[in-house]
Each structure stands twice: as C-alpha cells, then as structure tokens.
Amino acid sequence: MKCLLAYEKLAGERIDAIASEKVAGFVAKRQEAELEVSSINRQLQVLRRTFHLAQEWGKVDKVLPRVPMLSRERRRDRVLKRDEERRYLAEASHLLREVATILIDCGCDPRSVSG
C-alpha cells in the first residue's frame, strides 16, 4: 500500500475517481524505477483487492476499473525436500494434509487443480 500511496496521482484521488490511465501511469513509473514484473504485479494485486473491497463494502457507486497484471512474470517453483514435506504435513490441518498427500502422491501441481 505504501508504494501505491507514494504515487501522488493515485494517493490524491478518491477511489472512485481512479481511472485506468492513472493505473497505467503508476505501472509506467514503477517500470521506470526498474522494478521486476513480479514486484509490480504484487503492488497491482493490492490495488485490485482494494477496488474489490471498496465495491463489496458499498464504498463506491460505480464499477471501478479492471486492474490487469503485467505479463512476462518469472515463475518461481520450489520443490520441497523430503524432510520439508514431512514437517509440512505434520503441521497441516487434517483436510489440508489429506489434499496435499493426494497431490503429492499423484505428482500434481496445485495450480493445475480446478474447483
């Protein structure tokens, strides 16, 4: 939120006055600062969540702009070691442990499982 508030063109506006152009200006400013795409996307996620909550809580009367994520974000995968897996499963709730065990046993990527 600090990064969003540091950008005056966002911080100085009412939330229902923030247009897509101002969001694009924020992105351009962050890119000029040579931030990684993933860092900018995390900041955009905060703005996106703020917009969703403002609408959900009835703080705005109009639909706020869509906040798209930047493409070309580097994925960071990490494979758990056996002892990390064991510790994770030992600490997980019963349901989470059951789901995680099935995913691990099947070699599934949790991102590929849809609800």
Radius of gyration: 19 Å
Structural class: mainly alpha
Strand percentage:
under 5%
Secondary structure tally, helices: 6
Low-confidence segments, given as residue ranges, are none
Look at the structure and give the mean pLDDT.
Answer: 89
Q: Let me know the largest β-sheet.
A: none
Question: Secondary-structure element order, as H and E?
Answer: HHHHHH
Number of DSSP E strands: 0
**Helix proportion:** 55-70%
The shape is elongated
Task: Please report the distance between the alpha carbons of the first and last residues.
Answer: 30 Å
Topology:
Layout: H1 2-6, H2 8-11, H3 20-32, H4 37-56, H5 82-91, H6 94-106
Helix pairs in contact: 5-6
Report on the architecture of this protein.
By secondary structure, the protein is mainly alpha-helical. Helices cover 57% and strands 0% of the residues. The model has no long low-confidence stretch (mean pLDDT 89).
Summarize this entry quickly:
The protein has helices at residues 2-6, 8-11, 20-32, 37-56, 82-91, 94-106. The chain is mostly helical and 115 residues long.
Protein traits:
0% strand, mainly alpha, 6 helices, single chain
